Amino acid sequence: MNKDAIAISLDLINRHYQEPNRNRYEGKYFWEELYPLIRASGFRGIEIPYEPVWQFGGRSGVPMNRYCINTKYGSATAYREVLRQSGIDRVTGVTFDPNLFMRNDNLGFFFGASGHFAGEALAHAADLGADYFAISPSAYYGRMAHYHPDLESSMDDVVGRETELLGGLAAKAAEAGVDLVLRNEFWSLFRGERVLTLLGALPDSVKLDIDTATLTIAGIAPADFIAAHVGRIGCVHLTDTDFVDTTDNWKSSNPEFPAERATQVFRDPGTGSVDLGGIVQLLDRLGYDGPIVCSARQTRDPFRALLRIRAFLNQLPN
Amino acid sequence: MPNIRYANMSHWKAIPYRRIENFRDFYYEDRTNTAYYSDWDTILKYQSALGFDGIEIAPWDLADILPLFGSPEEFSAFAKDRGVEVIGMFHGAHASHAADHFDEAVRAGREAVDTIVRFGGTYMNTCPTDNFYGNGPLSREAVKQCARTINEIGRYATDRGVRIGLHNEFFCAINLPNHREFIESTDPKLVHYCIDTAQVAIMGEDLLTFYSDYHDRISTFHLKDTASVRQPDAVRYAQDPEITDDGTRWFWEPGLGELDLKGLYRLLKQHQFKGWMSVEYDGSPDLLASMALTRYHLDKELRPIYD
Question: Sign of the CA dihedral A12, A110, A253, A17?
Fold first, then answer.
């Protein structure tokens, strides 16, 4: 296992939820201080969650989409140079989820906006030289059900439109030399093994994104899933959790914040109950040599999380 | 009933919980203050405790609030149980200066009015159109078109008991050269004005002069201070002016900037302003601290002048 190649996702910065000093995250100065700290914690690659929301205001310091990066740096190339000078050699991947566009009863708007911005994000991933573009093929199940109470009865239509959208992206990804990988978050219409049906309807070039915590929450043993589908894995997210969904929280409107118990779903890698060490060794044994990313989504202390993850990785065998 | 009732423009960003049922357990997960900023129950209690009886909803939060509460009515009932009423919502009239966008801008404005009515609110503070960058300078015809659009939204709002208040940002395409021309192109019976005290001062209006000139158009305020009055064109017309690259704050809590807010309160008294005033804390690193500091300044410095 080449631990130097393991990247860190910028999702460790909580951009969306309130906390004291959250306002810093919209300023360019914050991120430009963060990049060297990421390198100092031993990471040479980052993953960017592509977020169109930052495109709609004068807050382009948040480096989460093409508009922001072009506004502040002129081009993806110039941004990569800033990263390089901070010790970050590469943008390993770009992720995209369409939750922002699930905001009314118009599925046409949802698929239209999702498709447009996913295309933008994919092209941006190519400009950044990323290995993969990871897309969530669904919004929160609960949010979709809120705006579309007939969701279950219209599932065939939804799956058909999603498959069409992904098919178009697959062609663009192949052309751009970026791997299109499917995320299957625990809150997704395509959670757990349901993602396999979607995958089966898409070209072989489309791969799976293994997210260890989200598989665990969905009731799937990540090691078994990895072993069964290793030939089609395009990206692995090392994520951790202690959460057990006993109340169908995954169907709620804000599933990463379970109302029943008011607890966080994800833990900093190495501090939950997922056997991440075992999974890393399994990937090694299976000969997986694709991208691996650590994600401290929902961490309450990003700087501590960086060091916690490095301490965890340091314990793994080389 | 006091002459002025105070509300907060909601800049809390996404609040993930309605109510944290097990606050103590939540706290012990990480022993940080995360729990204190994670549920609407607590946030609304802060408001109520500090004497802010109203809240103005941010439209960018709707996609989160509505699934969380089920409906605008349910959110309003939840807030009311904690002593806070929804007074209205902000709205951005996207591309209202563009003639070919008239129908879309009016449709979006009407939908926002309908949403406010469902929340039980009566104010819609509306940014007239998009940023200057990429749009300005507007032609005289474009300014008139913007006024036509806002008048049309204002007519719909007025018929439903909602007062639309123009809310100019310092970086808006309606800017210092056409600000007053635009206001005077709108129908005073249908379109009012929400003075964002900092925004108009940063844009280059003198706050007291502007209020004196337009006091009969004022529906409400966004009260905040600034230490950056009369910014140059290069700042106001820049591509990305709202959040500075180096962390410089445009907006400060009342009393921490340079605006003559005591002078404003003397004018409020002179013109007998009555109604709601929203306080806005955009850019604050700690909204609860800002709220408490503002309450102190209101009670000790401003309200003794008038209210």
Answer: positive
pLDDT recorded at residue A138: 97
Structure tokens at A176: 């751009």
* Best of A26, A32, A103, A254 to mutate (most B CBs within 10 Å, chain B): A254
pTM for the model? 0.95
**Cα-based distances in Å from B62 to A54, B37, B70, B91:** 16, 18, 11, 12
The pLDDT assigned to A126 comes to 98
Could you tell me if A273 and A242 are in contact, meaning their C-beta atoms sit under 8 angstroms apart? Answer: yes
Q: Is the peptide bond before B137 cis (omega within 30 degrees of 0)?
A: yes
Q: How many other C-beta atoms can be found within 10 angstroms of the C-beta atom of residue B135?
A: 17
**Which amino acid is residue A75, in one-letter code?**
S
Check if the beta carbon of residue A294 is closer than 8 Å to that of residue A9.
yes
3 state SS of A277: helix
Put residue B120 in one of left, alpha, beta given phi > 0 → left and psi -120 to 50 → alpha: left
| pLDDT of A275 | 97
Average pLDDT, chain A: 95
- Confidence band of A303 (pLDDT split at 50, 70, 90): very high
Which residues of B fall below an 8 Å CB-CB distance to A?
Answer: 12-18, 20-23, 25-26, 29-30, 32-34, 37-39, 60, 62-64, 66-68, 70, 131, 171, 239-247, 283-287
pLDDT for A37 equals 98
